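Re: duplicated header lines in exported structure tokens

Our pipeline writes sequence and tokens for each protein into one text file. With two proteins the header for the second block appears twice in some exports. Here is an export where it did not happen, for reference. First protein block:
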Amino acid sequence: MYADYPPSDHRTYRHAPALSTTLALAALPLAALLAAAYPAATVALLFGLLAGRATRR
């Protein structure tokens, strides 16, 4: 009755992440470094992206 418990496969995922996910996660440290080095440019970029989204609605 409990022969399968606990399961022998302890992997948290069964498939490798997609290439886009891998590239996005690889770019995070560089993005954080650039955001820390140029905070004014980061704020301007975020403001521009949000304003662009707001005007497209």
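Second protein block, exported in the same file:
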Amino acid sequence: MERQHNSKYEDDCKELVSKHTTCVKTAYQRAIVSVPVAVKPFSVPGPTHTLCCSEPVVTNVRCTGTKEKICYFTISQEICVEVPIHFGAEAQVGEPGVDCLRTSLEDCEDCVECDD
């Protein structure tokens, strides 16, 4: 198990220990550590690619005698649009919290090494 260390604290301790004769005893603190995690999903479309599936169909819209002097028509075509979508998520963590349990001079016999 790799333990996290505070290098400033370690340097100060090494300096004190090197200057004095000490007795060493190790204490153990059990705790439940929690951190809130927020997972925010995202999706991003990639470039599309369009395929024509049929011939276009032109439909006239009769507008005889209109005052607008504009002719209208419709073109329709069946297409297939290839749309790649990239899905993912980002995780953010909040401030960790701790519930302190018992402290003792006995080691944590029933505990196992944490996986990375």
